[in-house]
Amino acid sequence: MIVMRDICKTYQVARRNAGLGEAVRSFFRREYDTVTALYQVSFTIHDGETVGYIGPNGAGKSTTIKILSGILTPDSGECLVDGRTPWKNRIDHVAQIGVVFGQRSQLWWDVPVADSFELLRDIYSIPTALYKSNLDELTELLSLGELLRTPTRQLSLGQRMRCELAASLLHSPRILFLDEPTIGLDAVSKIAVREFIVKLNQTYGTTVILTTHDMQDIEAITKRIILIGKGRILLDGGLEDIRCGGEDIDRTVAALYRSYEI
Q1: Is 42 domain-assigned?
Q2: pTM metric for this prediction
Q3: Which of the 8 DSSP states describes residue 84?
Q4: What is the pLDDT of residue 247?
Q5: What is the tens place of the pLDDT at every residue in 52-73?
Q6: From CA 31, how far away is CA 115, in angstroms rounded?
């Protein structure tokens, strides 16, 4: 179970005007603005839930995922994932979670995907039998085949994302964090990824937290939506709670954003 209580997170962002003189001046006296990424964010996610975590750019979605995965430490508040504080119990924590960032890679760029998987096996200390079983299953479900012999840099975006998903699941995590996992994918690749995630949840009860701007992903994968805007939780409910008559999901969410002025 995931529990967040009154989580707050701010950043110090350097600001300066354009021009060489301003650049030299900032070298000696730098000005900062304080940006509030999260303010008293609270929610609970139970085991086996599929949750869409949505909001406009800069709303605080990725910051939340980074706190939940132990990458960032909040300024205040409490966060427990299966009883662990992510940034305090990182070694135990990462053994139980999988993370996919659509714009980041956990695969080594210049080596075949299979070599990256072998390195991840050593990092997570995955038993040989479990690793082989998981790799065989993931290879079949995600149609990896020859991709395992291909260097990551030579993969298309859709191929790489399928390999990223497999990499995040080799150690059989209980929780899967997905941050824009279908960004830039074609229609066929998107459908394949969606179907795989749904099957993963149904077969193994894996808890899935998905952040994305693609509302078709949300509609296909999740049963619950948490809306965040300007660092605050604005809505927590199901798709049926936000629908406006017969409008499609994109128009519904756009109207929702306007109603909250985010």
Answers
A1: no
A2: 0.86
A3: B
A4: 64
A5: 999 988 899 999 999 999 999 9
A6: 45
User: Using one digit for the tens of pLDDT, what is the confidence trace for 218-248?
Assistant: 989 998 999 999 999 998 988 777 765 556 7
Sequence-distant (≥ 6) Cβ neighbours of residue 145 within 8 angstroms: 139
Residue that is written with structure tokens 């299979």 in the block: 114
Long-range pairs of 129-132 with CB within 8 A, sequence gap ≥ 24:
130/172, 131/170
Residue found by looking up tokens 């354009």 in the block = 18
Annotate 25-83 with DSSP letters as a single string. Answer: HHHHS-EEEEEEEEEEEEEEE-TT-EEEEE-STTSSHHHHHHHHTTSS--SEEEEEETT
- Residue 2 included in any domain: no
Q: What's the mean pLDDT when you consider all of the chain?
A: 89
Cα 229–Cα 173–Cα 240 angle in degrees, nearest 5: 40
Strand segments, DSSP code E, in the chain are: 2-15, 31-45, 50-54, 76-81, 97-101, 175-179, 207-211, 224-229, 232-237
- Looking up tokens 């603005």 gives 33
- The CB-based long-range contact list for 258-261 (8 Å cut-off, 24+ gap) reads 260/227, 260/229, 260/234, 260/235
d(CA 51, CA 227): 10
Q: Distance between CA 207 and CA 226 in Å, rounded?
A: 15
| Cβ-contact 53, 226 below 8 angstroms | yes
CATH of the domain at 173: 3.40.50.300
Number of structural domains in the chain: 1
The answer to whether residue 91 is domain-embedded is yes
